Amino acid sequence: MDAIHLPVILTYHSISEGNSPLQISPALFAQQMKWLEENTKVSPLDKVVDALINRTRLPERTVVLTFDDGYQDFHSFAAPVLHRLNLPATIFLPTAFCGSTNSWPGQPASVKPQALLSWQQVIELSRNSFVFGAHSIHHPDLTALSTADAHHEIRDSKIELERHIGQTIDFFAYPYGLWNFPIRAAVQEHYRAACSTGAGVVEPKADPFALPRVDVHYLRRPASFRTLFTARFLAYVATRRFIRRMRNQPEGIYATI
Fold this sequence. Notes:
The protein is an alpha/beta fold. It has a single domain, classed as Glycoside hydrolase/deacetylase (TIM Barrel), CATH 3.20.20.370. It contains 8 helices and 10 strands. Strands 1, 4, 5, 6, 7 and 10 form a 6-stranded parallel β-sheet that branches. Helix 1 (26-39) packs parallel to helix 3 and helix 5 runs parallel beside helix 6 (181-188). It starts with 7 loop residues before the first strand and ends in an 11-residue tail after the last helix.
């Protein structure tokens, strides 16, 4: 498959008004979803994972929608738009904070407290075909924890989610995108795949346990968003990946494992 047509996994956080890098306004979000519905093939995450593992082809211009942290405004603003356009999405939850706010330890002071999905809302959304994944229990930097504590965060967030929604949880997202190979190995024990924050398209050699994603914050201008699947977009992704390499952040390519 030509590089321009390789799958792209997009990352959202809060669908709300504000200037934070974690926020996209409801009006802009609706505009973006309409453009995706008309110009791309929005696919569930599991379809991309299956194609990657089985080395099968996906439709050209495949996009996956992911939402980190489980903000309550997903229920209020994102879900109705996605439901109306019949677009699938995966939401990653830090389970200890469901029904609370995003005020976990280590949260930067610049990030304002916002409500997160309640368990009742999570159950409702899961029954309406939205997929949930684990984002640890307490949203820590897993690489800074002891082996036992990291395994607890990784394993027990899956158990808690499965207990509440009664469905198998196959996917994990690393808090802050931080992982190393021992953390990756622990995730592999319990999940089918995991998302990182390494910028990139999903190349044929991408590691299913460090899937690259593109944060929509960097595409919030309508003109930028419409560069998806263009040479300009690939150049942007390459720049973001170069920055990660300079910071010595792992990228998730099979050849490096």
